[in-house]
Amino acid sequence: MSEHRTVLGSVWAPTPERVELVLGAGAASERIPLERRDDGWWQPPGVVRDRVAAALAHGERYGYTLDGDGPFPDPRSFRQPEGVHALSAGFDPHDHEWADAGWEGRALAGSSVYELHVGTFTPEGTFDAAAQRLPYLARLGVGFVELLPVNAFNGTHNWGYDGVLWYAVHEQYGGPAGYQRFVDAAHEAGIGVVQDVVYNHLGPSGNYLPRFGPYLLPGAATGWGDALNLDGPESDEVRAYILENARMWLEDYRVDGLRLDAVHAFMDRRAVTLLEELADLAEEVEARTGRTKVLIAESDMNNPRLIAPRDVGGYALGAQWSDDFHHAVHVALTGETAGYYADFADPAALAKVLGGGFYHDGTYSSFRERSHGRPVDPDAVHPSQLVVCTQNHDQVGNRAVGDRPSSVLGYEGLAVAAVLNLAGPFTPMLFMGEEYGARTPWQFFTSHPEPELAEATRAGRLEEFARMGWDPAVVPDPQDPETFQRSKLDWDEADAPDGRRLLELYRRLLEVRSELPGLWEGRLDETEVLVGGAGSGAPGSGGGAGPGGSGPGDAGSGGGAGPGAGRGWIAWRRPGALVCVNFGPGPADIPVPGRGATIAVATDERTQLLPTTSVSGTPTGVSGTPARVPGPPTSVSGTHKGAISAFRVRDGSSSGAAASGHGGEMVRLPGLAGVVLALST
User: Fold this and answer.
1) Nearest 10 degrees: CA dihedral of 668, 601, 560, 529?
2) Measured between alpha carbons, how far is 63 from 55 in angstroms, rounded to an integer?
3) Residue 52 in contact with residue 9, Cβ under 8 Å?
4) Plot region of 663 (φ>0 → left; ψ -120 to 50 → alpha; else → beta)
């Protein structure tokens, strides 16, 4: 870092001709003319630097006037006590006395991620209140918490993606000091912290960065606002602004990783991309601190180059989201096929995603009306580098009414979703509350104080869903404080009978991931997928839905065919483990390779391991191996026994052969249910 960047009170502002530092608030404030350098940086004169540094170290308010206008907050402000339109406040993140000296970080592979929004995770909506829940998450078996953006935005509550001062931590959550306490508490609980950061656009209110310099590309829209200037004139400093922000989170706040929002929206034509520079930065911080750091990209491109190593032309990021997994599971369980879910009605969709990571790997996307994605190379990409989920903030919050799968699925369906997510070869992510079947919605909420912006946000939301056929009367008003309050978790639900039962299932499934590391260790092409059943013959072929979504992250809340809409069953074998899911409507007998398998966990206590001689009827003299089922038994109706004709799926193709090595055992799953088996070696 250049010397002038370390001089407190300095600012990069190549656009104005005159810059003053405003030190203090109200009548007692003073204006200090800054000295301009040739590189666009301004800094306090030498005679006042010590005095300025001392004032900012004690939390003094400050800002900048630009050609007489202002004062405006510091683009690198750490604190905005009175909001994003007010003066900044001095804060030194190095003053915190950390208590995590023994923390070395943790690997993403074999772990799990828990996505939460600080404002709605607890009734209080603060870092300190969230920290009180960390022991609960540790007992659940969570490896990382991923916080939705916490940078400063205008208003009191927001999803966080309208941030305008990326270095400042939202004051209502507890500010930067509260954030440091939270990270300390997470590490004490053995949990890593991943911070969601937005480097593709700035929010609509309080964005004064263009007054300072060319931070944005005029006319280059991302869908949420103007794009950041990553490759235009003077973009070196804009990229440095982003890279130093990433360093702040990874080093000053000791987070263990960053989730990079919507990297497909980066306008970056440089030979060395910003993503590569971010990967280099994370590796450098990891090497110097001795603490593992991971970067997780959210990308709509289905491009494994993001996570492939450099020696094969990749960007070497740690992981990326695979939305295709969510879509395939959602369709298989709910039957909803509107909007971007349409392609995932393909009976082979879920099997293809489990075996290959993406469904669209160069195939035609009817939603995009073009080919999309590219295949994952198992020589270059580990399955744990794909982060998957059955719920997240986008897939719930961008539905018209913010409804969760629990609005259409009962315990059995939610339990099957848990097996699909937590027992797969990928890194599973949970969305806060799903572990106990939360029924509280998570809706789109804002608190813009400007009447014009508030009305524009409200009207835009209604227009969006009116085009999809929704009655405007049922679409929540994002500006209504009750929309925010409704989105807060109701922790009493975790103590209800089904809540406790589902919570214990999640805990056991996360435990099984440690007991059976073959579920996620090894190569992606070690996954052998089997599909079968009566009727449609495979999951994912359920009926259509009511009004649905029209874009990535904008799914509607269609009706669909309901729980188990996919019918049939699916199973996948990994080293030392077999996972089986029956979508119903009745029982299914699924072949088990070899002999001596044991049930690690099942969603229904009636699940049994049987010799093949018993599949056509009741076993003679054999009671079967009882299932290990967390919590009390569940009731599943239906008596139709699914067919056992199975076919092998590899790289999305199938043949008529059953699983290789099958030696005479079957697992019988009643109705909508799932099981994880430990295979004999």
Assistant:
1) -70
2) 13
3) yes
4) alpha
- Residues near 178 by Cβ (< 8 Å), separated by ≥ 6? 126, 127, 128, 169
| Residues in contact with 570: Cβ distance below 8 Å, sequence separation at least 6, in sequence order | 350, 351, 354, 529, 530, 531, 538, 539, 580, 581, 583
Whether the ω angle into residue 14 lies within 30 degrees of 0, i.e. cis, is no
**What residue has token string 């991943």?**
194
pLDDT band at 140 (very low <50, low <70, confident <90, very high): very high
pTM of this prediction exceeds 0.85: yes
Task: Note the pLDDT tens digit of each residue in 551-591.
Answer: 333 444 343 445 445 479 999 999 999 999 999 889 999 99
Distance of alpha carbon 609 from the chain centroid: 36
Active site residue: 261, 268, 323, 498, which one? Answer: 261
Query: Which of these, 627, 636, 196, lies nearest to 412 by C-alpha position?
Result: 636
Coarse DSSP helix, strand, coil percentages of the chain, rounded to the nearest 5 percent: 30, 20, 45
Catalytic-residue membership of 146: no
Kind of pairing, strands 11-12 and 41-43?
A: antiparallel
Q: Which of 12, 21, 97 is nearest to 60 (CA)?
A: 21
Q: How far is CA 414 from CA 152, 502, 576, 631, in A?
A: 35, 8, 25, 14
Packing angle, helices 323-334 and 349-356, rounded to 10: 150
Q: Cβ distance 199 to 229 under 8 Å?
A: no
Structure token digits, residue 107: 């690997």
- Burial of residue 245, with CB atoms counted within 10 A of its CB: 0-12 exposed, 13-18 middle, 19 or more buried: middle
Question: Omega into 585 within 30° of 0, i.e. cis?
Answer: yes
- Write out the two tokens for 16: 């104005």
Going by C-alpha positions, the residue among 527, 561, 533 that lies closest to residue 546 is 561
Question: CA quadruple 146, 152, 156, 158: dihedral positive or negative?
Answer: negative
Select which of 115, 184, 277, 298 is catalytic.
Answer: 298
Contact assessment for residue 440 and residue 487, using Cβ atoms and an 8 Å cutoff: yes
Q: How far apart are the first and last CA of the chain?
A: 54
**Per-residue DSSP letters for 377-430?**
-TTT--GGGEEEES--HHHHHTSTT---GGGT--HHHHHHHHHHHHTSSSEEEE
Q: What are phi and psi of 219, to 5 degrees?
A: 80, -5
CA distances from 377 to 223, 372, 389, 528 (A): 31, 16, 21, 16
CA separation for the pair 416, 561 (Å, rounded): 16
- Comparing CA positions, the residue from 562, 560, 582 lying closest to residue 420 is 582
Q: Cα-flanking dihedrals φ and ψ of residue 433, to 5°?
A: 95, -20
Cα angle at 133 between 128 and 139, to 5 degrees?
A: 145
How far apart (Å, rounded) are the C-alpha atoms in residues 540 and 335?
Answer: 7
- Cα 18 to Cα 94: distance, rounded to the nearest angstrom: 31
Does residue 252 have an active-site annotation? Answer: no
C-alpha gyration radius of the chain: 26
Lowest mean pLDDT among 94-98, 167-171, 225-229: 225-229
Higher per-residue pLDDT: 6 or 538: 6
Per-residue model confidence (pLDDT) at position 681: 73
Distance CA 557, CA 441 (A): 12
Q: What phi and psi values does residue 418 have, to the nearest 5 degrees?
A: -65, -40
Task: Check if the beta carbon of residue 93 is closer than 8 Å to that of residue 253.
Answer: yes
CB 650 within 8 A of CB 621: no
39 Ramachandran zone, left/alpha/beta (phi>0; psi -120 to 50):
alpha
Burial (CB < 10 A; 0-12, 13-18, 19+), residue 663, is: middle
